[in-house]
C-alpha cells in the first residue's frame, strides 16, 4: 500500500506470465521477469509520453494494469468462468 499504484504490478504480472507460459499456475520466475518488464516499460513510457512533462510511473502502471484486468474480466465472463 505504501508503494501506491506501482504495487498494482504484483496483481498483473503473474496473470500475464501465466498466460504467456500457458502453465496451470503462476510460476515465480516468469512472474518476476514480467513484473520487471512491466515496470521498465511503464517507466520508459512515463518519461517519454508527453515530451517535457513527465507522468509518475504509478499512473502508467495503474492505467496499463487496469486496462488489462478489465479485459481479463470481460474474457473470463464471456467464457462463463465468472
The overall pLDDT, averaged over residues, is 82
Q: pLDDT below 50 for ≥5 consecutive residues: which ranges?
A: none
Helix content: 55-70%
How many DSSP-defined strands?
A: 0
Whole-number tally of structural domains: 1
Give the amount of beta strand, in percent. under 5%
SSE ordering: HHH
Give me the number of helical elements: 3
Distance separating the two termini: 27 Å
Shape designation:
globular
Rg is 14 Å
Most strands sheet:
none
SS content category: mainly alpha
Structure at a glance:
This protein is 68% helix and 0% strand. It is mostly helical and 82 residues long.
Structural description of this entry:
With 82 residues, the chain is an all-alpha fold. The protein has one domain. It contains 3 helices and no strands. Helix 2 crosses helix 3 (57-78). The longest helix is centred in the last third of the chain and has 22 residues, at 57-78. The mean pLDDT is 82.
Keywords:
82 residues, mainly alpha, 3 helices, globular
Amino acid at each position: 500500500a505504501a508503494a501506491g499504484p506501482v504495487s498494482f504490478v504484483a496483481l498483473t504480472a503473474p496473470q500475464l506470465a501465466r498466460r504467456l507460459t500457458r502453465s496451470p499456475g503462476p510460476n515465480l520466475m516468469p512472474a518476476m521477469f514480467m513484473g520487471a518488464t512491466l515496470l521498465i516499460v511503464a517507466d520508459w513510457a512515463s518519461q517519454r509520453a508527453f515530451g517535457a512533462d513527465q507522468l509518475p510511473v504509478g499512473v502508467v502502471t495503474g492505467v496499463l494494469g487496469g486496462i488489462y484486468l478489465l479485459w481479463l474480466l470481460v474474457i473470463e465472463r464471456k467464457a462463463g468462468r465468472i
